[in-house]
Specification:
The chain is α+β, with helices and mostly antiparallel strands and about 240 residues long. Helices cover about 45% and strands about 15% of the residues. α1 runs parallel beside α5.
Length: about 240
């Protein structure tokens, strides 16, 4: 079935308990099964788009992104918390409006979305090997094995798999024991200087705090002495006996 086919014109979606959007019904019931069929909302895709943008310099082909999704715009709000989405044919990466993205999973093994996932995984592995000094080059097979184990564990725990989770697992993947992105982008010398500055500030605060703690008892004592002087009862007896000469 071609993406421009007339039968896929709309879908009705709802927010699940997991705060993800799920398809409740769809115009093309012949080719789509809506059971556990998720759809990526605009906010989710905005985050995904930022991650994809960071992978462009490592070989990501943006054209594959547009080919992997059917795009929908908000049509109207229905009763029961449902929203009707209307099919549009805009580029996800270039559209000015916020769009929902439904992965093209009509052919789960060889379709555009499957090709995109494979391509994104390859690029992510290249990115990891470029940014992290592994003892041996990290492989796509190793990454896919880790992801498959996670998906299997989620399934055993009864968690529904959503397309956004599947994508983020790939685009944010880092092997256990390693880190990239913000940690590697920081200037070590600058971080060291900032660390020293914060250390000095913290030390000063501690010194002031200790000093205040030492002063408090003295100040309290001083105030108590002043109170005693102010509340002392005047001497009301007679004149003191004169010293006998």
């Amino acid at each position: 079935m071609k993406k421009t086919g007339p039968s896929l014109d709309w879908c009705i979606v709802r927010v699940g308990d997991d705060e993800n959007w799920w398809v409740d019904s769809i115009s093309d019931q012949e080719n789509w099964d809506v059971e556990d069929l998720g759809i990526i909302d605009p906010k989710q895709f905005l985050h995904i788009s930022e991650l994809l943008d960071s992978m462009t310099e490592f070989g990501l082909e943006s054209q594959m992104v547009d080919e992997a999704f059917f795009t929908f715009a908000i049509g109207e709000e229905l009763k029961g918390g449902l929203v009707k989405l209307s099919r549009v044919r805009d580029s996800l990466l270039k559209a000015e409006d916020m769009l929902f993205a439904l992965p093209d999973v009509l052919d789960e093994e060889k379709g555009p979305y499957a090709d995109f996932l494979n391509h994104a995984t390859q690029v992510r592995v290249s990115m990891l090997n470029e940014l992290i000094e592994f003892a041996e080059p990290y492989t796509q097979d190793e990454m896919e094995e880790v992801l498959a184990e996670k998906q299997n564990n989620d399934f055993l725990e009864g968690q529904r798999s959503h397309f956004s989770d599947e994508l983020l697992a790939i685009l944010e993947f880092v092997p256990d024991g390693f880190a990239i992105d913000a940690d590697l982008e920081e200037d070590p010398e600058k971080s060291k200087e900032e660390g020293e500055d914060y250390s000095d500030l913290e030390t000063s605060l501690v010194e002031v705090s200790d000093k205040e703690e030492k002063l408090l008892p003295d100040e309290d004592l001083k105030w108590e002495e002043e109170d005693k002087e102010e509340t002392t009862t005047p001497y009301e007896g007679g004149a003191p006996d004169e010293e006998t000469k």
